[in-house]
């Protein structure tokens, strides 16, 4: 792993990490409402994009964000 990822979880921990993040967002939603939860999610996405850029470069970040955008378009 590159310098940006020191201390990152092993692959086996990723699903558990996702559950933790979802729980955090649900708690923010229940405590502070939808607008604050959306802002928190945006901050999480920005942090993840910065990490992907650091580790894999901007092209990979754009590819991932495009996939997410396409998935959103299919669900809305």
Task: Reconstruct the topology from this structure.
Elements: H1 14-32, H2 34-56, H3 58-75
What's the gist of this structure?
The chain is mainly alpha-helical.
Explain the overall architecture.
There is one protein chain. By secondary structure, this protein is an all-alpha fold. It has one domain (15-75). Helix content is 79%, strand content 0%. The mean pLDDT is 84.
List keywords for this structure.
76 residues, mainly alpha, 3 helices, 79% helix
The radius of gyration over CA amounts to 14 Å
Mean pLDDT: 84
Whole-number tally of structural domains? 1
Low-confidence stretches: none
Shape call: globular
Tell me which oligomeric state these chains represent: single chain
Strand content: under 5%
Helix content: over 70%
Cα(first) to Cα(last) distance is 36 Å
- How many alpha or pi helices? 3
Could you state the order of secondary-structure elements as H and E? HHH
Strand segment count: 0
* Computed structural class: mainly alpha
């Amino acid at each position: 792993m590159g310098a940006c990822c020191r201390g990152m979880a092993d692959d086996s921990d990723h699903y558990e990490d996702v559950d933790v993040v979802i729980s955090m967002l649900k708690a923010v939603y229940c405590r502070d409402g939808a607008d604050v939860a959306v802002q928190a999610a945006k901050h999480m996405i920005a942090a993840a994009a910065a990490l992907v850029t650091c580790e894999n470069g901007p092209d990979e970040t754009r590819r991932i964000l495009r996939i997410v955008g396409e998935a959103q378009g299919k669900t809305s």
